[in-house]
Structures are given as structure tokens and as C-alpha cells.
Specification:
Radius of gyration: 21 Å
Helix content: 10-25%
Mean pLDDT: 85
Largest sheet: 6 strands, antiparallel
Distance between the termini: 57 Å
Number of helices: 6
Shape: globular
Strand content: 25-35%
Length: 357
Amino acid sequence: MSRDRKSLIHIHANNTPWELQLCSAANINVTVNMRRLGSVQQKIPCVFLTEVKQEPSRKRDCQQFQVVATEHVNPVSLEANVDCALATEKLDGTCCYVTVYKGRPHLWARLDRKPTKQAEKRFRKHQRSHRSCKGFTWNVEEDFKAVPEAWIPAHRVKHHSGRPVPDEHGHIPGWVPVEKHNKQYCWHSSVLDRDVVAALVLRPSGDDEDGLEVAAVPLADLLEQTLELIGTNVNGNPYALGSKKQPVHCLVSHGSVRIRNPPPVDFQQLCSWFQESPAGRVEGIVWHCSDGSLVKVHRHHLALRWPDGETCLGERPVVVRVGGASDEYSGSQDLFASFSRLNGHRFSRLPDIQFDS
């Protein structure tokens, strides 16, 4: 399909219309029905074919190799018709999931079941000698670390004899419920009001095309969605939210921050866009294809730095829309109460959000 033939396509996800410029064979209106945008349950493949270089990773300090993109588009992307996909911002945080736990909507944290050190060594040795993970045999009962009893595997994890088995990276993706007193997930807990079963969500503003809003959203409205937790104490805080004294965290639904006028899926044009366009000050792009599949590219795939100065998300204006401390959030945790005192307040940039001392 030619990349220069465009038409306006309306995508409906959860009864919300999305309008974007996409390629099609003729200038007609097309309706693409997607069950849900942005469900990130598995590792997302790169939009390009990749190769491994034996040099220190730009993304992980202790990793002595890095995965980089070639200039060849991944056949998976072509099969999913990536030229007609919805381009959204790849956010730099930690992945979360909302589903039922103990009979009510609940926030879950990402917890992949990983191999023991000995099993990891065997797996990496096999990879080096065969230049592939194919043919490696796992003993799932013995080779993997224990996980909490409430842990569940992610959607589409393959099973053998009733047991989940690892993916090609040697991990079993999964989720664990965020419990109130678990210090490991204290920043997850900070965005929750358990009394009213709601979460603090950062999302595009309904009345400002360029703006964002922080809103208290019932977890029931987020059921079966995946979201990204971003903020002061997550992944080095590239969006400059809050401070050590006053940490600020929030959830962002995957697929909610779309990229207007994205570049075509072309290696050189994407490199130029990331380096030269104000809209390219993002960690990466995730394309949501009409068949429900996802593909991505991030700056490290293209040998580009991240973070690299101010971010596109951080430069957008934001308004706070969280109910007053005197009403439904009166019994909430500190972050909810702090935001409720700013209800209706507008900030010119995301990092400008500050609470009274």
C-alpha cells in the first residue's frame, strides 16, 4: 500500500472516536472497530527487524549487549498494516493492569516470573552458542523463581500441561495485585483511593486539544486496561514530576496519548523526527493496528539518547480535575487530598504541578 495515499479514518475504542490521518486505497471514510486500545500484556515487537550488537546497552546499565533496529520493516508490522495504524506515545514508566481481585476492581503491578541464576546461565550459554533461543528446554518447576500466591500470568502466555511457559526472552509475563501495605509497590498505592476504588489518571483534556488533565477515575472504568505508572520515583522520572519532598505519580492508559502527524514507518525519517521535531521528544512510538496487534520503536533501537532534554509530555499544559477534599475524597490518601486541593487549577507545564507545603 502506498504511504502517500491518505484518508480520514475514525477508530472507535470504548465509544471514544479517534480521528487520524491514515493511508488507504481511496479517499473514503473507514470505521475500524478495535476491541480495546492499548492492552499491553506481552513484550511488544519492534516495528523493524532487529539485531544484537555486542556493546554495552544504552538502556540497561548491566547489560553488555544491545538490541538495535535495522532499516528493514518487520514482516509482523507489514502483516498488521502498520501504515494504517494509530500512532501513540510510548511512555517511560512501569506497566500496570486493572482487573478484578477479591470481587472488586483492583490495580495489579507487572511481575514477570524470571529464571534462577543457574537457569539463566544455561539459557544465555545456549543463546551464544546457537545464536538463537530455539531448541532450549526449560524445566518450569525448577528453573524459575517463586512468585506470590496471587500472581497470575499475562494474557496469551502459552501453557503446557496446564502450566505457563516462558517466552523467547526466558520470562513468563504476569501480574501481582497491589496490596496496601506492600512497600515494594508504595508508589503504585499512592495513586489509589481504596475507599472509593478510584485512581489518579493523567489523560488528554476533553476541552483542550494540546492539554492534559489529572482526574480521579473509578477503577471500574479502567477494567481490563493496562496503564503506565509514571512519576517522581519511577525510571528516573524523565517527565520531571514532583520532587523528593513532594512525590507525584499517576497512571496513563496505554494508547491514550496519540501522536498527531506521525512520521511514516521509515528508518531514516523516524530518526530525523526523533531528533528534529518537537513532537519527537518522546521515548518511542507504539502503533495500535486494526487487527489488535501492537508494534513499537524506541530511541534506543535507533541509537538515540533518552531522556534527552525536555519531553513532549512534560511541556503540555495540565488542569487538575479531582473532587474537593471535603467531599468524596475526604478519606483518601495524601496524594488524592493534595490534588483535590488543586481542583480546577491549571498549570502551563506538567512539571509545574506543586502542592502547598
